[in-house]
């Protein structure tokens, strides 16, 4: 896969050496489909691309710029519980449902984000975990409490490996090429993803590109999942029957008489 | 070797799951308990979502109980009449229980209810079993004459008295019926077969002879767990067939060994061992409830 990706990267560079004028950034993924199969143990997807060196005279000598990659999963509603101590026991005492939360969010960059651009610029582009703005019923949680819930959600997602921050994970090669790996863990939510690639120069977005990516179950895994949801009753009966047969088989195989 | 579980939506090691199934199967054959009270916490511990763990292990309990019950049938240790009466109550109870489960899940309190129920039940039963087993062991050591089985007379006045020749009992059918119902509710809410509650209740409340208790308990667990599996699959789509099959594969093998091992252990030792296992799990759950969590915020089921 690596060889193929490098070859692709090379082709991109060669093919675009001449017409690269309007766009100063071009990127692609080594795979546009993350297929969850029986043996799925998580997967690295390579994101690679090429930059055009700055042409404006005032930017000359400033280097190629900084690259930031953001991968977002489909937005879902997410319930969050908060525990507190009641009579010596830690129990969920409050809960809140965020209406639209990215199910997956990974951000990688050539340098730490705050060295690349100002907070306002990052926030405007939705870059960085601290700039994720979840819809939150403000009547329910206002001010500092709201911020606490937001941080709590981000931490909970980070523990699941679904929110990832990777400053320095984008490598620049010879000022023109860049690459990074995005890891999709085994509990990755399925659906349509977006990989956003930003080129920052002088603290501003100089160029950007969006690459679609799909995460889905394929083969037997997908069939079992669909069957369990579409024909729940039949699935339940089969589950019981299989267990009965397996139990009997176990007895029949192991008896000693 | 990792395998992706389509409903749980995570990858786990195949041999870990087989081993887990085998261990629980062994305990199931040994004690006549479904083993769900151990399986559920262990599955959650290795990363399976709680809802999936609860429903899937009910499926596993069906298989391990079927596999275990044959050995007891052969030795004539199943009181089918008693089993059927318990089962009638259990069917009703587990159906009610699955609905209560869905309700509590919606309220976000299912984990707490499950944990608290475990701590209380496991604590009480564990202590009872160990006391009883310890007393019996002392009696045997000192070669004291064993006192006759104490007949419970407190439900003597209940109507619908029935003869259970195998258990040498003549009691009201309402007693095992309500027992079956109560354990059925618990088994659905706690996601267990309920054997670990049923076995002591059959001994202490019904006054059944220990020899037929385990076989009869396994017999009725098969049907109650089958009911729970079906209802969880139909209502919540939380039964993971791939996970269940792996657990079953390990479980049926383990149950065979457990069943043979049980025949060689005296009843009092068996009780003390079961008491120890039950107290261990209960203690761990209590510990988790009272120690401060790593983070007070946690993701809920959507």
Structure notes:
The complex is a heterodimer of chains A (257) and B (302). By secondary structure, chain A is an alpha+beta fold. Chain A has two domains: 2-216, Immunoglobulin-like, CATH 2.60.40.1930; 219-257. Helix content of chain A is 30%, strand content 38%. Chain A is built from six helices and twelve strands. Chain A has helices spanning 2-16, 113-116, 119-124, 143-159, 220-230, 232-254; strands at 25-29, 33-36, 43-51, 66-72, 75-86, 89-102, 105-109, 163-167, 171-173, 177-184, 191-201, 204-217. A six-stranded mixed beta sheet of chain A has the order 2-12-11-4-7-8. A four-stranded antiparallel beta sheet of chain A has the order 1-3-10-9, with helices on one face. Chain A has a two-stranded antiparallel ribbon with strand order 5-6. In chain A, helix 5 (220-230) crosses helix 6. Chain A is globular, with a radius of gyration of 24 Å. With 302 residues, chain B is mainly α. Chain B has one domain (2-290). In chain B, 72% of the residues lie in helices and 6% in strands. Chain B has ten helices and five strands, in the order E-E-H-H-H-H-H-E-E-H-H-H-H-H-E. Chain B has helices spanning 14-31, 36-45, 50-74, 80-107, 110-141, 174-190, 195-206, 210-236, 241-264, 267-290, and strands at 2-5, 10-13, 161-164, 169-172, 297-299. In chain B, strands 1-2 form a two-stranded antiparallel sheet. A two-stranded antiparallel ribbon of chain B has the order 3-4. In chain B, helix 1 packs across helix 3, helix 5 runs antiparallel to helix 10 and helix 6 (174-190) packs antiparallel against helix 7. The radius of gyration of chain B is 19 Å and the shape is globular. The model of chain B is unreliable at 146-150 (pLDDT under 50). Classes of the chains: A alpha+beta (257), B mainly alpha (302). Chains A and B meet through strand 5, strand 6, helix 4, helix 5 and helix 6 of A and strand 1, helix 3, helix 5, helix 8 and helix 9 of B. Strand 5 (75-86) of chain A pairs antiparallel with strand 5 of chain B.
